[in-house]
Design brief:
The chain has 566 residues and is of the alpha/beta class. It contains 25 helices and 18 strands. The protein is globular and about 75 Å long.
């Protein structure tokens, strides 16, 4: 009787993936499109892979070693700023499965292994996605940034070590010199985008996408989704006005409001994961609807250059308990949006009052987006603290923080921003493009841009006065003087309450079951009103039905695939 042997299955969807044979090893290169061929030649001739990935931080290198008996080891090096993912599963009894797209792994593992671990589930509800090595499926893990990872394929043992950190030398310069430096790096990053019909810029008309258009040039194709939702009308006008200002043509993709739940379901089935945010379904619809083979987008700008920090800066001035209490009392007496915003000051100020590496501090919790009181009742404070600690440790292991810890605001802001960069802010967009057979590019997260930003003192990196992303705003003023950089621009966001109460999501709980993470009282609270946890629960419920319990789930077509006997 012939012995049945297990297999190693590799599938990479990234259009830039390539393979080369080196003796008895097969080498797979991802994220190396901008690396000079001379450097790749040295690597393939036996160069130090970790050193290559330290110099080319966007790279992901996979090496499979084999002998006459079959493949015996797999090694992975993932660069510090590599936004190419590497997922793997040892769950199937007859094979090891690896891919750069989650869907292609989850489709090949047993249904029982698709469910999340308790730890991953808490992180999903707290951050809307698991952190570090975890994924939403217990049977699938991923390799972290700056990690060398190895699998002994014959006994399925694994090992991991780190080979890189953000450890930049801070250089004091004038504001104009900072701008000149970032200008040069963004120019370099955008030069790789082809100026033809094969590439298009996802365009909203805000600072981030308008600045990219200024670098790419008016001949660049621009595309935007245009919902018939009235609340989105100002956003669509921003895009039209900014495109006209730069002399660019704008392709508008209609997206009927009534289709939102269908888009959400399609997005879940396409990515293989719960939808991270409410704009992801629109982006995936646009990605599949357009003929362009390469999409450029401004995602990651907030993570790298500064999120909305006015409330954080204001709150950091109220670290003393007595003053926070007075603000909280005052907020209760003020109706409307102003009272709501003042009510946020106390909790945010409390997070700034904590030590830098406190798991309940601002730097550790800035990514949290769930309704923590409800989540805490569901899973317990201990589980939430453990999730915060795990994500904090992941970021701190990869970054040498440079801000003075005595400056609570700037030290916490530095940690918070690297925290978000390390979670891969372009993951959903990349995955949608891969599934559609397209390539994607986010210049604001290009390794040369992030390397340059890391040399700027924190007090000058993210905020100037109360103006966040000041570097991008100043660069846009240089290039497009008439653009109103300080206008108040509404974000592309779901009119969540209306969609849930009398719009396309009003019947969602008739079609899907509330996840059993919550007891009956908590479920009633979650269903009764549209809070942040309601959105996460909807995305979780759709994923359970459309992916986890879907026995017909199919992987996407891969650009590079291989199979080895073990």
């Amino acid at each position: 009787m012939t012995e049945r042997r297990s297999k190693l299955t590799l599938e990479f969807l990234s259009p830039g993936a390539r393979v080369a044979d080196i003796g008895n090893a097969s080498c797979y290169l991802l994220g190396c499109e901008q690396v000079p061929e001379s450097e790749i030649s040295v690597l393939l001739a036996g160069g130090d892979v970790a050193d290559f990935c330290r110099r080319n931080r966007g790279a992901l290198i996979v090496k499979v070693e084999a002998d006459e008996g079959g493949a015996h080891s797999l090694r992975v090096w993932r660069g510090l700023f590599s936004f190419a993912e590497f997922y793997y599963s040892l769950a199937p009894a007859d094979r090891v499965v690896v891919s750069d797209h989650f869907q292609n792994v989850v489709a090949r593992i047993p249904r029982a292994d698709r469910y999340p671990s308790d730890e991953a589930l808490v992180q999903h509800y707290l951050y809307r996605r698991p952190y570090g090595h975890l994924t939403v499926s217990a049977g699938i893990l991923k390799v972290g940034q700056a990690e060398e990872f190895a699998i002994d394929l014959r006994n399925r043992s694994t090992s991991v070590s780190m080979f890189d950190r953000v450890d930049s030398v801070i250089v004091e310069r004038s504001a104009d010199e900072y701008l000149d430096m970032v200008d040069a790096e963004l120019q370099k990053a955008t030069e790789v985008v082809p100026r033809d019909d094969g590439a298009a810029l996802l365009f909203s008309g805000g600072v981030d996408s308008t600045l990219l258009l200024a670098y790419l040039g008016a001949e660049t194709q621009t595309v935007t989704f245009v919902p018939d939702t009235p609340e989105f009308a100002p956003e669509s006008e921003y895009a039209r006005t900014a495109a006209a200002m730069l002399g660019a043509s704008l392709t508008e993709v209609p997206t009927p409001e009534r289709d939102f739940l269908t888009m959400l379901e399609f997005n879940t089935e396409t990515l293989g994961t719960p939808s991270f945010d409410d704009s992801s379904p629109y982006f995936t619809r646009l990605t599949f609807a357009q003929p362009y083979g390469r999409l450029v987008f401004g995602q990651g700008a907030d993570s790298a250059f500064g999120m909305s920090l006015k409330l954080a800066r204001f709150s950091s001035w109220f670290r003393w308990p007595g003053i926070r209490q007075a603000v909280n009392i005052g907020a209760k007496s003020i109706p409307g949006h102003l009272g709501y915003r003042l009510g946020q000051v106390g909790p945010i100020a409390n997070r700034f009052s904590r030590p830098l590496l406190d798991r309940r501090g601002y730097g550790a919790t800035a990514r949290a987006s769930g309704d923590t009181p409800l989540l805490e009742r569901a899973v317990g404070r201990k589980a939430i603290d453990a999730a915060n600690q795990a994500s904090l440790d992941y970021a701190v292991d990869r970054v040498v923080l440079t801000a003075d810890p005595m400056s609570r605001f700037f030290s916490q802001i530095e940690l918070a921003h690297w925290h978000v960069v390390m979670v891969n802010p372009v993951r959903s967009a990349n995955a949608a493009c891969q599934a559609a057979g397209k390539s994607s590019f986010a210049p604001y997260c290009a390794p040369n841009v992030l390397n340059a930003l890391a040399t700027i003192p924190v007090r000058d990196r993210y905020i100037r006065g109360l103006s966040a992303k000041w570097i991008l705003k100043e660069l846009l003023t240089r290039k497009v003087p008439d653009y109103p950089v300080n206008q108040r621009k509404k974000a592309t966001a779901l009119p969540w309450r209306r969609f849930y109460e009398n719009g396309p999501l009003q019947d969602v709980w008739e079609r899907y079951e509330v996840p059993d993470l919550f007891d009956s009282e908590q479920r009633a609270e979650l269903v009764a009103r549209p809070i942040a946890t309601t959105w996460v629960a909807i995305s979780h419920a759709i994923w359970l039905e459309r992916v986890v319990r879907n026995d017909d789930l199919q992987p996407h077509e891969a650009k590079v695939k291989a199979e080895f006997l073990i």
